[in-house]
Specification:
This protein is α/β, with parallel strands linked by helices and 339 residues long. The protein folds into 2 domains: 3-124 and 254-307, D-Maltodextrin-Binding Protein, domain 2; 126-253 and 320-336, 3-Layer(aba) Sandwich (D-Maltodextrin-Binding Protein, domain 2), CATH 3.40.190.10. Helices cover 42% and strands 15% of the residues. It is built from 14 helices and 9 strands. The protein has helices at 3-17, 38-49, 60-70, 84-92, 102-107, 163-176, 178-191, 200-209, 219-227, 268-278, 281-291, 304-309, 319-323, 326-336, and strands at residues 26-31, 52-57, 78-82, 120-132, 155-156, 214-218, 240-243, 254-261, 294-295. Strands 1, 2, 3, 4, 5, 6, 7, 8 and 9 form a 9-stranded mixed sheet that branches. The longest helix is centred in the first third of the chain and has 15 residues, at 3-17.
Amino acid sequence: MSSSKARLMLGALAAVIAAPAFAQGEINLYSSRHYDTDEALYADFTAATGITVNRIEGNDDELLARIEAEGANSPVDVFITVDTSRLVRAKDRGIFQPVDSAVLEARIPAYLQDSDNQWFGFSQRARIFFYDKTELADPPRTYADLADPRFKGQICIRSSTNTYNQTLLASIIAHAGEEAARAWAQGVVDNMAREPQGGDTDQLKAIVSGECDIAVSNTYYFARAIRTSVDGLSDHLGMFGWVFPDQGGNGTHVNISGAGVAANAPNRDNAILFLEYLAGDAAQEHFSAGNDEYPAVPGVGLSPSVAELGLFRSDAIALSDVAANLDTAVQIFNEVGWK
């Protein structure tokens, strides 16, 4: 990179992170993130830029259907959601447009953004193992270990309809191939302590109740129980150990919260400025402090609840490559009887 180009990039980065110039107007944000703590994100953006954030919340299917029904006249500028599979679904349905931003390219690691620059990840949730350390001296260390017969009857994990599990299996397909992924999924089914039920917090509570010794969960569900009181979990944290899988191999699989600029955004420039704001240190720190997530940007400080879980090496495979295997992952889940 030339020195002049580097100075230009750094200048643009400083402008959005340090003190963005005030702008007129608004952005219309459609969000499936349902966290009250995000209010501070939007308020800080408005205070820094003068741009009003108008937000509509709903689940992904509702919001995508609304955008499609609104068509070219849709007021949406930014669509924000959780998990790679949902971002890819939005892209495949023509919801996003490409964004060329030196700030986003400099701040967001390449594997956490779409190969066509249509969406970008802004926070991470690692999908890891929690276990009862009073019962299990030698927990699984890799995703492959979950299929080891020595853990038969010990594993609690969510349904195959859960997007977090779908992207995990899609990543295994990307790394090891379809045949190996099918064998892995069958092995996990064989090792389940019970049929899948509930969310990640329910898997963690199943360790407390003694239903299983190992639970697969995204990190922020456990970190939340460290930061605040979660009934049936926070009073029992001392019994838990945890493992970031595959630290000696591909690295730990991550899910993301991400966003993109809508294809027909009426306030496109403001929308891009909002995405660049989400990549700034203040917003990145908020993702960690407000919702117990890992920042997407390397080197940003962690909240105490997240720091207690520790640092890890993430799987650096491009999430766009993972997404290409989502349909196959669903097919494999159905074939092996993962309910």
